[in-house]
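User: I'm preparing a small set of examples for a lab meeting where we compare how different chains pack in three dimensions. I only have the primary sequence for this one, and I'd like the structure in token form so I can line it up with the others. Please keep the answer compact; I'll paste it straight into my notes.
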Amino acid sequence: MKRTWIKNANIVNEGKSFVGSVVICGEVIDEIIEGNEEPSASCEEIIDAQGYYLLPGIIDDHVHFRDPGLTHKADMHSESKAAAAGGVTSYMDMPNTVPQTTTIEALNDKFADAATKSIVNYSFYFGATNDNVSLLPHLDKQRICGIKLFMGSSTGNMLVDQLDTLKYIFSHAHMLIAAHCEDQEIIQANIDVYKNPYEDDLPIHYHPLIRDKQACYKSSQLAIELAKETNARLHIMHISTDKELELLEDKPIAEKRITAEACVSHLFFCDKDYERLGTRMKCNPAIKTQTDRDALRKGLTSNLIDVIGTDHAPHLLEEKQGGALKAVSGMPTLQFSLVSVMELVHDGWISIEQLVQKMCHAPAELYQIEKRGYIRPGYQADLVLLNPECSWQVTNECIWSKCKWSPMEGQTFRSKVEKTFVNGTLVYNDGVVNDQYRGQALKFDRI
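Assistant: Understood. Below is the structure token output for the 447-residue chain.
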């Protein structure tokens, strides 16, 4: 098996940083060496990483690759290329596709499709609905990342709004429930308040007023009450408000049954950016105030927020036309997630060690992913080499997502992904994606 020696890197792993080497043997990490000692055996390839960070591959627990059925705007192949270019080595894809991933047959079809298309590693959520709860006991816990529960409607409406059904899901899931939390009654009441009956839309700056703080808080509060009542494993996706942080506990993941994710969009933008970006930054839950954004950033320094994801959700630009009611919600950010969070490191909001905890270690621990998320001997060699001091600007030409736009266009970043390894294979190297490699299905260490 080929041995690759990555030397002189600033390795960031398990809460510390040190200069040293990592040796890859085949698919796995073989050696981790502090200092400048040489490997125990000869290596066919040597990469001098002096001045670069070597991190575990990013694990994104929240993407929408639009495959199957919506492949005019994205598919597993195109978006996994974007993942590789951004240092993301594993992803977990959402069920609101066409058909929806709400049957075991549809779930099996997605796994089979990914094996032929995906350049990085993958898993898929099973979508809970008002009508399919009888299937929950038949799901394979070692194969499926979790149950996706929409307690608020979004793209491809899969809203579960019957209390008896919600209680059944929380009681019978027996694996992680990833919840989208927005209260639909509050949202509709806000629409009725703001909408002029003689007009069919509202300007985009009404979006965070319609999908407001209270809609998020009330729904998250209900999810947490149900989780505590049933002892379910709940993961609240895309926390967007300071008020929701009051519902969360500051303690290690291993001691929690209820965890939370913040997304790059809510950490990077605030409502002041609607004037500049318009509907390009429209997403659900809505991006809210600078106070909310800064509270989320501060939440990363504790255990209130456990994971950073993206909610990567490509649409064609023509689908983003309109305002708060008509433009579709979602934006492509996956390729730029790592470098976006590195901006928070540069600006002193979090440390590089905290970035690795939230984007690599925590997703692996939370979902109980086998042998990924850490730089450890015997673990799969999912690694990213990052240049921490490289100023560059996002242009349309560098975007790998099929939709060919991003709200990050024109943004100058101070860090750059140089190389991405997936299972020991170099899949991204200085602007070039290895189009032929295929990733692996994630496995979960659950009883």
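A couple of notes for your slides: The chain is about 25% helix and 20% strand. Residues 148 and 389 are 38 Å apart (CA to CA).

User: Perfect, thanks.
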